[in-house]
Amino acid sequence: MAASNYFYALGRRKSATARVRLQSGKGNVVINGKPASDYFENSKTLLLELTRPFGVLEIEPTKFDVSVVVSGGGHAGQADAIRLGIAKSLVLLNEDYKSTLRRADLLGRDPREKERKKFGLKGARKQRQFTKR
Predict the structure, then answer these.
(1) Is 113:49 a contact under the CB 8 Å cutoff?
(2) Cα dihedral across residues 22, 23, 25, 31: positive or negative
(3) The model's pTM
(4) Domain parsing of the chain, residue ranges
(5) What are the C-alpha distances in Å from 133 to residues 120, 122, 128, 130?
(6) CA atoms 112, 105, 99, 56: torsion sign
(7) pLDDT digits over 42-74, tens only?
(8) What is the CATH code of the structural domain delimited by 7-103?
(9) Under a CB-based contact definition with an 8 Å cutoff, are residues 80 and 86 in contact?
């Protein structure tokens, strides 16, 4: 891979972080050194989720190579983080794509994260059972 002409973007979802590199190529999607079909081998829907930004823009995904380093979270959160990273890097490629991707809700970060457990409680909000005595 030539490191000269690529577009880099960061995507996040829950506790997953995806660093995405988009460059012209043959349509290879590599996630953490594995092909995407091997990385998400049990879920075809997650693989379709990755190519959604290309579908919304009506661009052939075979025109670009996508290289991703993803960490944290589960597979669903990682797929959403990668999708956001791909959408952001497409905007860097061409600024005209921004409005289309924004209307398709592909440029917004989903901010929902797990709430931390507080001391004195059983969970984030669950309390001990009340007894009158």
Answers:
(1) no
(2) negative
(3) 0.88
(4) 7-103
(5) 20, 21, 14, 9
(6) positive
(7) 889 999 999 999 999 999 989 999 999 999 999
(8) 3.30.230.10
(9) no
